[in-house]
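Suppose a colleague, Dr. K., hands you the sequence of a protein chain of 248 amino acids and asks what its three-dimensional shape might be. Before reaching for any lab equipment, you can write down a predicted structure in token form. Begin with the sequence itself:
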Amino acid sequence: MLRLLCVTAHPDDEAGGFGGSLLLSASRGVETHVLCLTPGQAATHRGGARSDEELAAMRREEFQASCRMLKIAHGEVLDYPDAGLDRVDFYATVGELVGRIRQIRPHVMLTIGPEGAVTAHPDHSMVSLFATMAFHWAGRSNRFAEQLTNGLTPHRTQKLYYSTSLFTLPDRQPVSPPPVTAIIEIGVEFLETKISAFKQHTSQSPLFQLFEPMARKRGTRELFHLAATTAPRQMQMETDLFEGVKED
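The predicted structure, expressed as tokens, is then:
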């Protein structure tokens, strides 16, 4: 079975940035995984929560509801600090992701670009750096060698993609998006499900009126940049994230 791992920063990133491609992959029999680094407890929109802890618990439940709608096989929210990923231990964080990659053994990984996506959120930039380094180091026996016990072995994920866009938001900090190298047609049905999955994050309901028009502007395509491959190659436009991928 092919496996896909998506690494994000906040609950709702999985739907907003990757929902259609996750659904499409699952519909084709791919085992999909999502790791979300933070529970989003520093969000501006609080959903009636009286504390960060209450909001974190709320957003974890919303994340799982979204994952069910997106047919994600395994979704997990970790415990890193929302709005603080630029201040955590880089090596330790990469190490945790390396361990997860060696356990899941994905064929393809998805994450946000280092520019921070259209919102320019620092957490988005940091999750990109963590996931990119973990992609490369998970396959090396001299990185986090202490993990290589009880059957765990180095794993080389075959392709790493960054989500990207053909527009920017003028009211945010400037970004330089990665060039589009993959155009994934998700279809109208999966677009509608993606929007519905985003709306499972009810604590963030003030964002719905911003997200839905933006999602419909993007239409039935999700755009990605191929950032790394295990097989050296020249850049080419793709329409399938698993193009050229070899099954185990």
